[in-house]
Design brief:
The protein is about 50% helix and about 20% strand. By secondary structure, the protein is of the alpha/beta class. The strands form 2 sheets. It has a 5-stranded parallel sheet.
């Protein structure tokens, strides 16, 4: 069966990584999460203390050996031979990753890494996949959800009980990140003109997955 490239974009907590991973699993594709690369660089910069050094950042970044390693059904990241995992998902990384991702040198480095991947049979999610990374992807999907619902999801991800207060705080953090991602000069978060938008606010994960798989099957038939 024909294997295509699927690009899934959207703001934080819209469900894109969950959907991309599950769609890839259902179709026997490989999941490529571009956010892991940005998180890996952010975590490394925080660990080694060069995140706040404007003069050294690009030079240190250029010297890093960053590798996307196929570990079916997904990809993993190594930096200077070290495998990175759960440490990339800390609150400290989450708070700084958008600022790191806005740096031209970071986006250029990651673009090269992503575009070197074999694209057939890949589901890639991020914020500029359909517009910059894989603009010729056979299927582009743009997921959205209300800021309140995205805030609630973030609270649940921490295994906390959602309350008006903690959901409000997460909502405000997400809206601030949306502003950074959407207003940056290089590869901003925007919906590609040929992307199909799906609002996940009131949809369960299986409904989102079913909708995307149906779109894939439609593309393969045409």
């Amino acid at each position: 069966m024909k294997r295509i490239t699927i690009a899934i974009d959207g703001p934080a907590a819209s469900g894109k990584s969950t959907a991309a991973r599950a769609v890839a699993e259902r179709l026997g594709y490989t999941h490529l999460n571009s956010g892991l690369l940005y998180r890996a660089i952010t975590w490394t910069a925080l660990r080694d203390g060069w995140l706040s050094s404007e003069s050294d950042f690009d030079e240190v970044l250029a010297g890093l050996d960053i590798v996307l390693v196929p570990t079916p059904p997904t990809f993993s990241v190594t930096i200077d031979g070290a495998w990175l995992g759960r440490e990339m998902h800390s609150a400290q990384v989450a708070a700084r990753v958008s600022a790191v991702a806005s740096r031209p040198a970071v986006r250029e480095r990651i673009l090269v890494l992503l575009q070197a991947v074999e694209r057939a049979g890949v589901v890639c999610d991020g914020r500029d996949i359909g517009t910059v990374v894989f603009p010729d992807a056979a299927l582009k999907v743009f997921l959205v959800a209300s800021a309140v619902e995205r805030g609630r999801r973030r609270v649940l991800e921490r295994n906390e009980q959602p309350t008006d207060e903690n959901v409000r705080m997460e909502k405000e953090l997400l809206e601030a990140r949306d502003e950074i991602d959407s207003s940056r000069d290089i590869a901003p978060l925007v919906r590609s003109a040929d992307a199909i938008q799906i609002d996940t606010t009131v949809l369960g994960p299986e409904e989102v997955i079913d909708a995307i798989v149906a779109l894939v099957q439609e593309r393969i038939r045409t």
